[in-house]
Amino acid sequence: MKPVISVVVTCYNHEQFIEECLRSLFAQTYPHIALYVYNDGSTDQSEHVILKVLEDSPFEETYYECHENCGLVKTRNKALDHIAGDFVLFVDSDDFLPTNFVEELVNTAVESDADIVYTCLKNPATQATVIDIHEYNLETLFVGNYISATSLIRRETIGEIRYDEYLNYKKLEDYDFYLNLILNKSAKPVPNYTTFLNYRILENSMSARNNLLKHYVAYVYILNKYQSLATTEVEHAVNIHFNQNLQRTFLAQKVTIYIGDEEGKFTEGNMLQFPLEELGNITFEIPATSSYIRIDLSEIPSFYEAVTLTEQESGQKLVPIFTNAIIFNQSYLFPNPDPQILYEISEDSERVYNLQYQAYKVESLHSEDYVIKILAQALLDSSSKAEEIEQCKLDFEQQKQQLEEITVQYNSVISSRRWTIPTKIINFFRRKQ
Question: Which of 58, 79, 190, 356 has the CA that lies 20 to 30 A from 41?
Answer without folding.
Answer: 58
